[in-house]
What does this fold into?
Amino acid sequence: MITLEDLKNFFEMALKPSPLVFKIGFAIVLLVPFILHLIFSATTQYTTLPSVLLIGPSGAGKTALLTLFERGPLLNPDGTSVGAADLKNPYRKPIVTSPVAQTHTSQVPTSVELAVGANEDGTPTSYKVDLDAAGATARKFLLIDTPGHPKLRGTTLQHLLNPSPSLTIIPTNAPNKKTSTDSHSDPYKSKLKAVIFLLDAAALADSDGDYLSQTASYLYDVLLSLQKRFHSRKNSRAPSSIPVLIAANKQDLFTAVPASLVKSRLEHELGRIRKTRQKGLLEASVTSEDEIRADDEEGWLGAVGSKEFKFEEMMEFDMEVEVMGGNVIGDGPGAERWWRWIGERI
It folds into this structure.
């Protein structure tokens, strides 16, 4: 039977400084956090981040836009900061001390993990705001820059054809990397939430060049892939909607085409491409009229039978298409509207 004297002796021994007590306490301090880390890291599943796909022809400024959203405010070539009013914001990101990073033609997809906060009225915060300093609640997502060369577009279009909104990507800045020596080769899933098609509005002004036709041809394939994705559903439930933003970049240049004119020119060119492809299909040798009709509808962008193409036709396939102007560097509307468009759809 344990007596009061035994309890007294036990507490005196436990509270008395001794090498054994110090060793036990030191072992607990070191081992318990390590054991808890192993338990939680083995059982906790990583959250699948939503992703935004950045698509467009080569030289449109996709990598520069990704750099802008990742680093925050940049400098003009003359050394002045973009947006003097931003200096008054106590929560702004530090201005990058060099101009836009030297970019080159991308050969593999590149992604960065970004975060967008919310203002008191629910609108997305600016990409220039340091969310940690502002104490804002952030929603993380991946911005994926894809190669614009015609020979490297196949993988991008295959992603858009997938009825599932998830993408299997190998980003350069993956948030869920495994602890391995070659973490860049570890693919993971990401939910595709939106597509940004970036084009050079200044190059679009050259009526003698083929930039308009090549850009519209790529855009046609992108929209048609999303349209086929809508038709590829296996049940009555339609795939999740993927909105498309056509970003007319380089609006800081004098020769840049305004966003409204970019929209009308693209619609006219897409309509021409649609008629050309239909004509080529009808002239091809096909065994029956039913096959002609089926292939015609499959390759027809927008409402079947419409004479002039309009972006509003894509709403029939639960696809919202908008055209917005902006620029990465220089004086102009900037990239704020593009960022807010992303924040409203993440």
